# Entry
Amino acid sequence: MAKNDTIHIRVNEEVKSNAEQTLSMLGLTISEAVNMLLCQINLIGGLPFQVTLPAPERLIVHSREDVAKRLDEAEEDIENGHVSSADDVFDRLRKKYGF
# Structure
């Protein structure tokens, strides 16, 4: 499909920068991600995700350093024996989300 139209939008500089970093890790540009979003909107007749307020414990990745820090923390938890079995994790998820 030929791309022959342009969209101009204004966004917060930090939001754009963080999105570019995240999308780059996925091998995508902002333009490609917006195209994917618009295609999904057309396919399903709405947004391809729920629009809700974020949970306080939600993981928000801002940079590669943030990801590295969180991985280091996770590794430290494992080394300190702070682990759960898959059954325990799924039980907690079922209770929390009711499935």
The chain has four helices and no strands. The mean pLDDT is 87.
